[in-house]
Automatic annotation (TrEMBL):
Stored Pfam families: Methyltransf_25
The species this protein was found in: Paractinoplanes ovalisporus
Taxonomy, superkingdom: Bacteria
InterPro entries reported for this sequence: Methyltransf_25 (IPR041698), SAM-dependent_MTases_sf (IPR029063)
Domain Methyltransferase: 66-153
Organism phylogeny: Bacteria, Bacillati, Actinomycetota, Actinomycetes, Micromonosporales
GO MF annotation list: methyltransferase activity
Protein's name according to its UniProt entry: Methyltransferase domain-containing protein
Keywords, in A-Z order: Methyltransferase, Transferase
Single Gene Ontology BP annotation: methylation
């Protein structure tokens, strides 16, 4: 018998497939595991809901043009537009953008580290649902957020609960107990560990709050 090798799928392919299943109404749980064995589980199905506990106070802090980074299926982008705000979602996932648009949100398939509309003019930025992990370097992502913000803008970030080990580096993603993907860069940042990357990014913390077991902070250019 000839041995055959299993080709690992790109992380984005696994993510897109999970979102498509969630969009069809199926349960879709994603597991992110770093190279030290730490795991983070995410219920992708929840992103398709019209509202999650803890969303309200986050949305209440937004006004004027809002950029939702890593918008997923557009839950927050659409909610902001329903409140009368100009809101744009961006995501690297084609499935996410398709679902966001189907919901009625305005969304583009873009990488936050690439060219984006309105650079330096956004009044508010959202990094919710664990999206501080994008790119595997919270300080770099926050610096990018500072570039996108207007001088008097606000960045609202969701963080892991205090006591959660923060980490940054390579990880793999799997869906529903399936095989793990190729490595990709990701991070987890606990609420208590925000000050260091914030200062390194030229941002200051204006407020922190918690609602429904979720932890948030608002930052502004220093």
């Amino acid at each position: 018998m000839t041995a055959t090798s299993t080709r690992l799928l790109p992380a984005l392919t696994v993510f897109d497939a999970a979102l498509s299943r969630a969009g069809a109404g199926a349960t879709s749980v994603l597991t992110v595991r770093n190279n030290r064995g730490a795991e983070q589980q995410v219920d992708a199905t929840s992103w398709r809901r019209p509202w999650l506990p803890g969303d309200d106070r986050l949305l209440d802090r937004c006004g004027g043009p809002v950029l939702d980074i890593g918008c997923g299926p557009g839950r927050l982008t659409y909610a902001l537009s329903r409140r009368g705000h100009a809101a744009l979602g961006v995501d690297v996932s084609a499935a996410a953008v398709q679902l966001a648009r189907a919901r009625g949100a305005i969304a583009l398939r873009r990488d936050v580290f690439g060219a984006l509309p309105g650079e330096g003019r956004w009044r508010h930025l959202l990094l919710a649902d664990g999206n501080i992990g994008i790119g595997g370097d919270p300080a770099r992502l926050l610096r990018r957020g500072r570039e996108l913000l207007a001088p008097d803008g606000r960045l609202h970030v969701e963080l892991a609960p205090p006591g959660t080990p923060s980490w940054a580096g390579e990880a793999r993603i799997s869906a529903g107990g399936g095989p793990a993907s190729e490595p990709f860069r990701w991070a987890v940042l606990a609420a208590g560990d925000l000050p260091e990357p914030a200062v390194a990014s030229g941002l200051r913390i204006l407020a922190t709050w918690t609602e429904a077991g979720r932890w948030f902070a608002t930052l502004s250019p220093a």
